[in-house]
Amino acid sequence: MAEQRDTDRAQLVDRLRLDRDRSSGRSAPASSRRRLLAAAAVLVAGGGLLWFFTGVKERPVVRTAVARAAAEVAGDTSVLDASGYVVARLEATVSSKITGKVVEVLIEEGMRVEAGAVLARLDDAEAKAQLSLAKAQLEAARTEVDVLRADLAQSERDYARQESLAREKVAAMQDMERARAARDTLRARLANAVQQIQVAEQSVDVAQVQLDNTVVRAPFSGVVVETAAMPGEMISPISAGGGFTRTGIGTIVDMNSLEIEVDVNESFIGRVTAGQPVEATLNAYPDWKIPGKVIAVIPTADRSKATIKVRVAILVKDPRIVPEMGVRVAFLGADREAIARGVWIPNEAVLSEGGSSAVLVYDNGTVRRRPVTLGESAQNDRQVLSGVAAGERVVVSPGEGIGDGSAVRLSEPG
Description:
The chain has 5 helices and 24 strands. The protein is α+β, with helices and mostly antiparallel strands.
């Protein structure tokens, strides 16, 4: 009985082993298919990623610039920038016409004076004495004329009497001739005395002018920017006496005559014309734009600096503008209304083909070609009147092989 149970157990174990083997044989093909599908998916995904990164890396790199609205940058658009200084066309160091000692100075720096105002007075004692002498000489000449007229009247009567007696043969002819000679002499002396009156009157005028010259007056209205002489010092219209003699009382500037002088390199002077609008910026006020226009281009060059001087009018009067201030001048290429239209892009972004112009606009990894209408030129920029909107990116200096529909990548983020 025990042997029979062992035999049955062995047979049961054999059957169970065979069933597992058969079961295992049936499931093997399904497991292999799942593993193959998973491997294929991994390969496809890896290939896609490899293609993506390889394709992006192989795209040509481009440099772009943002189109700027012309209305916002009209003030920055210029055909030429240059530096200069504010100067006064009407400026004078006022001096006296004569040499003398200063007794009174009536001006200070910053004071505004009107034309003809008294700035200073010189010692006038000698001038007053000369005037008194000239007046006395004039009175003496007038008195002399009165005396001579009286003598001449008497001489005329004596001559008439001698002439009557001579006709009647009562007096000798010699007496009549002497009376006539005396009369003629007095006539000549009277004429000379009258001339002396005129000379004396002129002497009085000269002495009066000399006295007036002791008062120094403003030749025009303006602001005193400097005083040079003090009471007690000698002043002269010429440098007489070395450093001990002043040549001026003070300096006056007419602030209404302020303008800008700019030295423009002669290589760019062709961009500047009379009447051209400009925009000036003082170094002291960098955010203040001052409108102006070109007065004239001086027709001579500075050989040492290779520059030509340009005069610029300041169209806005303001007390903040003072002489000798440094200023930056932007010469505008057209009127402001024309400049303020459309957008501005770099010159390198414009493509010229067969007489027409176009640009390449960047859009999400690709570029599109667009025809454009061009406007003004200003240094490194070009005005685009139509074809590009403000804020769009245009390709700058596109390389060979980059055209409409090309896939590209940016050389900088954004």
